Structure formats: C-alpha cells, structure tokens
Automatic annotation (TrEMBL):
<keyword id="KW-0479">Metal-binding</keyword>
<dbReference type="Pfam" id="PF00814">
    <property type="entry name" value="TsaD"/>
</dbReference>
<dbReference type="InterPro" id="IPR022450">
    <property type="entry name" value="TsaD"/>
</dbReference>
<keyword id="KW-0808">Transferase</keyword>
<feature type="binding site">
    <location>
        <position position="167"/>
    </location>
    <ligand>
        <name>substrate</name>
    </ligand>
</feature>
<dbReference type="InterPro" id="IPR017860">
    <property type="entry name" value="Peptidase_M22_CS"/>
</dbReference>
<keyword id="KW-0819">tRNA processing</keyword>
<feature type="binding site">
    <location>
        <position position="114"/>
    </location>
    <ligand>
        <name>Fe cation</name>
    </ligand>
</feature>
<comment type="similarity">
    <text>Belongs to the KAE1 / TsaD family.</text>
</comment>
<dbReference type="GO" id="GO:0061711">
    <property type="term" value="F:tRNA N(6)-L-threonylcarbamoyladenine synthase activity"/>
</dbReference>
<dbReference type="InterPro" id="IPR017861">
    <property type="entry name" value="KAE1/TsaD"/>
</dbReference>
<dbReference type="InterPro" id="IPR000905">
    <property type="entry name" value="Gcp-like_dom"/>
</dbReference>
<keyword id="KW-0408">Iron</keyword>
<keyword id="KW-0963">Cytoplasm</keyword>
<feature type="binding site">
    <location>
        <position position="304"/>
    </location>
    <ligand>
        <name>Fe cation</name>
    </ligand>
</feature>
<feature type="binding site">
    <location>
        <position position="184"/>
    </location>
    <ligand>
        <name>substrate</name>
    </ligand>
</feature>
<protein>
    <recommendedName>
        <fullName>tRNA N6-adenosine threonylcarbamoyltransferase</fullName>
        <ecNumber>2.3.1.234</ecNumber>
    </recommendedName>
</protein>
Length: 350
C-alpha cells in the first residue's frame, strides 16, 4: 500500500511516504532552532511552526516520492501522545487531505510508529517484537505480538525518560538544547569509566523492566557542582561519557534480560535516543554475546519523522485494519497500548 504519514507531536513537522516497506520520501521541517534559546520546546511556537510548514512539507514529500496524491491508499497521522496543539495541526491537515482526496484516514500512536519504522530498514517485524523504546518523553520495554493492534508494556521509567535525562545533563554541562546529540559528540573524547555514576533500579529486588534516570541526573549535577565549587575545571567529555555509559548500560542490560525471559531472540530499539552511538554499539556487542539479533533503524529514522507514521499506516492498510472516523481526536496522553485511534463516532444504526 502507498501511504502518506504526517507527524507533528513535538517540534518536527514530518511527512513521509512509503509503499509497503519501501521508503519513498521523508520530508522533515524542524523548529528546533526557534526553541533553543528557551532551552526546551515551547508548545505555542511549535504549533505555529507546524502550521506554517505543513502544506509545503506535504508538497515536498509528494514531489520527492514522485507520486500523485490521488494514488495514495491512505493517510496516516500521529493522533498522540505529544503536545496537544502541535498534534491538532497534523490531525487537522490529515483530515483535510484525506477528506478532499476521498482516502481513508488512520490516526496512529507515535510510540508504535517509532517501532514500526524499522520495517523500512529491515523488513517485516518478527512477531512478537521485543522493543526498547527510548525517546524524549518515554522509556519502555514493549512486547508487541502485533504492531498494528497489540503492544504490551513490560516496564517503563518511573521518573525521567532517557532522552529527558540526556537533555537535562546537557543543560548542567552547558551544552545547549537538544542535549542528546551534544552529549553523544562530547562523549566520544571522554572516558566512560572516569566517574562511576549510579545505575538506577538494578538491585536484585528492583522491578526488572522498569527504569529510573532521575537519581542519575541528580548525581551528575551534584558531581559537577562539587567540581565547580572547588574551582576545578569540569571534564565535560569524561562526565558526558560516564553519564552516557550509565544510561546505556542499564538500557541494554534490561532489554536483553527481557528478551531472554520472554523467549524472544531479537531486539528492536527505537525512539530518538536510539540514535545514540554508544547505545548502538553496546547493544550490538551485548546482543551478539547473547545470541540476539539487533534491529536499530538508521539515525534519521530514530528521531521524529513522518516516514515512521506512514510505515505504521501502511501496515494498518495491509492488514485491513479499520480506518478512523472524521471526528478523530488528538490525544496528548494516548497510552502506548492504543496503537490506533478509531475516532469518537460509532456507525449509524441501520
Ligand atoms: P516521544 O517520542 O517520547 O514523544 P519525542 O518525540 O520528543 O518524545 P524523539 O524525537 O523520539 O522524542 O527523541 C528526542 C530525544 O532523543 C531528545 O531527548 C534527544 O536529546 C534524544 N536524542 C537524539 N539524538 C540523541 C543521541 N545521539 N544520543 C542521545 N539522545 C539523543
Ligand atoms: Mg524533536
Ligand atoms: Fe518521538
């Protein structure tokens, strides 16, 4: 199926077009630079930027894919979770295009899209899929017997998301926003063993699949403050590398344990933090040792984009899943278990 996907849950206006598992176009307009001076995403600015970028980005994607809108089999859109106003721009645009073109509309979950995108890289996802989802707002281990209808959380962060921890530590180190890519870069010149930061929830009595990164973030902040108080130069590269190591050590350990304990022989890693170099290399190393096949999409498919939404939409069409009704709502706190959103209205009683 030929599907166009629209993503506006945060600060990226993404429009992707796929045919089945083949990526035809991935157009992304980001308002990240407009947010940088505020140190985080400002919802009002994001919504306005989506509004301005929406139509040009759709046109760019159609041109890049070399397809006519009339040939589409459906239009998919992120219905949640995310920023309410930002989501609304995408959902409204998707409705308008789908209605005008006479195409079915599919409101889908942003988090399931972060997983399904790997089909564009490595083909059909195995069933069940074990996924480590690590992004700006979420960190979970998910078992998905069917990525279009059945996603089960095994565990999640009890405080900060992994990406949030990267962003906060980057701020402590004065590395700007967004912090993940900056920490990744600085960590390359640092020693991951320089400072032993705490590994959250790894005790024998702790929940095996839950995560906690808030204690780690505080430990890093305290360590840096102590250095500054003593008038010592903060070894930014070593702090970045040691912090990053603490995060990815826990993520990979728990993900592999989840695979083993659930009898799954492969692991998918998705979400913005899956772009992290050290997470990618350590996961590969540990998966090889454990006899687990690792699937991680290329970096630009890990962070928010429209192709991931199109990928999930195409899977919905391929499996004849019902489309959404025209009153499809945007749901800022859509749970990960709701892979698609049917809409409010019920069919008219005959
Ligand atoms: P969610 O998907 O939970 O709704 P989001 O869509 O805002 O959140 P993503 O775009 O999936 O988040 O990911 C953004 C996060 O990924 C940010 O916190 C960013 O710092 C982090 N990130 C991006 N690249 C890297 C990297 N190379 N290393 C570590 N973190 C990274
Ligand atoms: Mg973003
Ligand atoms: Fe995301």
């Amino acid at each position: 199926p030929l599907v166009l996907g629209i993503e506006t849950s945060c600060d990226e206006t993404g429009v992707g077009i796929v045919r089945g598992h083949t990526l035809l176009a991935d157009a992304v307009a980001s308002s990240v630079d407009d947010h940088a001076r505020y140190g985080g995403v400002v919802p009002e600015i994001a919504s306005r930027a989506h509004l301005e970028a929406m139509v040009p980005t759709i046109q760019r994607a159609l041109k890049e894919a070399g397809v006519a809108a009339s040939d589409l089999d459906g239009i998919a859109v992120t219905a949640g979770p995310g920023l309410a106003g930002a989501l609304l721009v995408g959902v409204s645009a998707a409705k308008a295009y789908a209605y005008a073109l006479g195409k079915p509309l599919y409101g889908v979950n942003h988090l399931a899209s972060h997983i399904c995108v790997d089909q564009l890289e490595h083909g059909a996802l195995p069933e069940p899929t074990m996924a480590l989802l690590v992004s700006g707002g979420h960190s979970s281990l998910l078992l998905a017997p069917d990525i279009t209808s059945d996603v089960r959380p095994l565990g999640s962060t009890i405080d900060d998301a992994a990406g949030e921890a990267f962003d906060k530590v980057a701020r402590v180190l004065g590395l700007g926003f967004p912090g993940g890519p900056a920490i990744d870069r600085h960590a390359r010149d640092g020693d991951p063993k320089a400072i032993r930061f705490p590994r959250g929830l790894t005790g024998p009595r702790d929940a095996p699949y839950d995560f906690s990164f808030s204690g780690l973030k505080t430990a890093v902040a305290r360590w840096v403050e102590a250095q500054r108080r003593d008038g010592v130069d903060v070894p930014v590269a070593d702090v970045a590398a040691s912090f990053q190591e603490a995060v990815v050590d826990v993520l990979t350990r728990k993900a592999i344990r989840a695979c083993k304990e659930n009898g799954v022989d492969h692991l998918m890693i998705g979400g913005g933090v899956a772009a992290n170099s050290r997470l990618r290399s350590l996961a590969l190393e540990r998966c090889e040792d454990a006899g687990i096949v690792l699937r991680v999409p290329r970096r630009e498919l890990c962070t928010d984009n429209g192709a991931m939404v199109a990928a999930l939409g195409a899977e919905m069409v391929a499996r004849n899943r019902p489309s959404s009704t025209w009153d499809l709502p945007a749901d800022s706190s859509l749970p990960v278990t709701e892979v698609s959103v049917p809409g409010h209205s019920h069919p008219d009683p005959e």
